[in-house]
Design a protein that fits this description.
Layout: H1 4-17, E1 21-22, H2 47-50, E2 60-68, E3 70-71, E4 74-75, E5 89-98, H3 103-117, E6 125-130, H4 134-140, E7 149-152, E8 158-160, E9 165-176, E10 196-210, E11 213-228, H5 229-236, H6 246-259, H7 266-286, H8 295-313, H9 325-332, H10 337-372, E12 380-381, H11 383-393, H12 397-405, E13 410-411, H13 413-433, H14 440-450, E14 454-455, E15 462-472, E16 475-477, E17 479-481, E18 485-490, E19 492-493, E20 507-510, E21 516-525, E22 529-538, E23 540-542, E24 546-551, H15 553-577, E25 583-588, E26 593-598, H16 605-621, E27 625-630, H17 632-637, E28 652-659, E29 665-670, E30 685-694, E31 697-704, H18 705-726, H19 733-760, E32 771-773, E33 776-784, H20 791-800, E34 807-814, E35 817-824, H21 834-844, E36 851-852, E37 856-861, H22 867-880
Parallel strand pairs: 1-2, 6-7, 12-13, 14-19, 33-34
Antiparallel strand pairs: 2-5, 3-4, 5-11, 6-9, 8-9, 9-10, 10-11, 15-16, 15-18, 15-24, 17-23, 18-22, 20-21, 20-24, 21-22, 25-26, 26-31, 27-28, 28-29, 30-31, 32-33, 34-35, 35-37, 36-37
Family: Belongs to the class-II aminoacyl-tRNA synthetase family.
Binding site for Zn(2+): 563, 567, 671, 675
Pfam families: DHHA1, tRNA-synt_2c, tRNA_SAD
Amino acid sequence: MISTNDIRRGFLDYFASQGHTIVPSAPLVPQNDPTLMFVNAGMVPFKNVFTGLETRPYVTATSSQKSVRAGGKHNDLDNVGYTARHHTFFEMLGNFSFGDYFKEQAIHHAWTLLTSVWGIPAEKLTATVYHTDDEAYGLWTKYLPEERIIRIATKDNFWAMGDSGPCGPCSEIFYDHGDHIFGGPPGSPDEDGDRFVEIWNLVFMQYEQEANEIVGELPKKSIDTGMGLERIAAVLQRVHDNYDTDTFKALIAASTSLTGTDAEGERRASHRVIADHLRSSGFLVADGVLPANEGRGYVLRRIMRRAMRHAHLLGAKEPLMHRLVPALVAEMGAAYPELVRAQPLIEATLRQEETQFRKTLDKGLKLLDEATAGMGEGDTLAGETAFKLYDTYGFPYDLTEDALRTQGLHVDRAGFDAAMAEQKRAARAAWKGSGAKASDDLWFDIAEETGSTEFIGYSADIGEAEVVALVKDGARVDTAIAGDTVAIIVNQTPFYGESGGQVGDSGTISTDAGLRATVTETSKQLGRIFVHHAVVEAGSITVGDAVKLQIDVARRAAIRANHSATHLLHEALRQRLGTHVAQKGSLVAPERLRFDVSHPVAMTPAELADAEAAVNAQIRGNGTVTTRLMTPDEAIAEGAMALFGEKYGDEVRVVSMGTEDGGKTYSIELCGGTHVNALGDIGLFKVVGEGAVSSGVRRVEALTGEAARAYLVGRDERLREAAATLKTTPDEVPARVAALLDERRRLERELAEAKKALAMGGGAGGPAGPEQVGGVAFIGQVLDGFDAKGLRGAVDEAKQRLGGSGVAVMVAVNDGRASIAVGVTDDLVGRITAVDLLRKAVAVLGGQGGGGRPDMAQGGGPDGSKAADAVDAIRAALAEAPVAA
């Protein structure tokens, strides 16, 4: 029996022998079609080639394209497990011609491969053509009798890329599984039976249409074909059911072995669901999709949880899905190496999701059993109950629907939708009640209409998206033109919206039609709408446009480096200062980082240097940075640091980086920001400042990468300049500066002594010797340029010249200001105080107050030109109130 792997290889080898280029499968996340949730057909990666927007170095190609149909209008999820041919994940074999060969050769290739290479009997095959496509009909008569060439007038045999663009008739090839199976040929009343199964669709792109009207023929006619690998495997392995082919049999054998149950009767569908959903889950995770509550991640979560419920039905008491991954890799890893590379991530993601879901599964199923007790076949479960299962226990609507399917029960979808709408209304009211701005109504309207923005920037710097809303001057608009400043909202984006201290991305948004918009910043509204604040430089942008998004890669790289550095710094400070250290705020910008932590005192230079060295040691170690999704409780149990006061949902992103001696992870934190892939990408870390923010909160400022290097280069240049000025080498600058400071202090002391000696010998305020004023010996002097710190000493010396009794006043004048000291000998303290005399002088100097003891007081004022007048004021005070002996 030919294996599925051999069929895939044989298909590609055949077309390679016919001059086609083998093109590897594109990822499941579309790179060039923002309107698609997932790649769902073989032609999707070639869409821009067909439309002429892209050229490639080949004109014919062949591929085996990974595809998923589990969301939007292409959704096979509900039927998977219950039919022979529905899958969430499938492989589409295809051959393509971009203006090279056309109908005749396409039909010839298909017939040759099916009958000559694979040996399918010609009598088993039937072809359909579009009812007006006489050319294709005539070509098929070379291979089939006319009774097995069927004209079809429906859209099943006419394909279009959209309302406008390339289109053309199709020719489908059907395989007859035999009259023992119910069903009729295509176009007959019994065509929906399983006897005749479509195995290959040949699309002849020959027309151009506008607004669903054909306007002419394409200048270069093209071919797009698609053949489901699972269907042709069933044919070539001579089984009627896709789930009886070798790949599925191997996966089902693994699940029967691990659960100890066979795949018969009621358990048959469960094993099939698990096998199918294992494939889609594994490939989606390998292509970068992780479980989430929005967008692609939510579709993946629905797929995973549907499989996990069926594992529960089979009696699995512990998480099962992750234990099946080795079987998946064994079957498909050779053809798709990304499965092998991502195996640890796939296993960890499945284990985590199933562990989390099992905590609520039993409670949810119990509620479901209670709600359906007494119901009979055909009855309907209330929508409010289905919503409670979704809101409280994480049961997607379709999981509830699937759980009731075997009992013949239905779910009130309208009631479910009404309960969902009421929850949104309550959320809006609660948001308003929290003091939110009136403008938030606008964002609520957009969120309810368009859904949340899917962030794809963890793994992509560029992307394509559909414009879902535009806001200009606080109001929604349909179009923005050159010169407009506009907020652009798209369905998915690589631009990070400012949050968690990390600034938003900047970059460009463009179209092939001439739009060029510069995104200056990106913000988040309501925590889920990414808003691109942009200026339209050229062209125009309209709601519904498909646009290309490109972040500023260099700026993002600098931001990533700074963000990862804050995690390393946080741990370094905790290890050196104590576990009381906790993040209180941060700024992660491209040019710098700022990190606020709880700590009661200033950090010493040695502590900062030690922390800096620890961070750089981790950078040199170049450890990988990993991310995982888990519940907040599980994350904290693993040692992840959470920010006090931060609100976390049911699931958090855990970022781990670096290693310590013994292999322990250096830093584990809850974080939704962007980070480097390896710590070596940070390059360098340099602390440039530390200071107080508020009581008990310290701020560390630092640089990384090129900014840190430039800082050190600049500092080194300034050191060389200083060395040149000092006429020494950079290494000798500290010693030279110390020597100069010592010399300066010596000269300052000598100068002070000289000034003091000069001042004591007489000054502008009067003679050096005492005079008699009001019966009291008095010395009053103005000392220009005298250090105010020496005033008390000068007063003490003057008091010695008073002969044991009297008043001494010294005024120092520096830079226009005056400082004054007044001394009174002990014998006069009971009759006159230094403080009273001082206040009279201070008032003259334009100052206020002043104070000290009764025998010594000191003060000053801003007007040094009145220094002599201040001395006179004290002299006058003594003269007006003579002190009796």
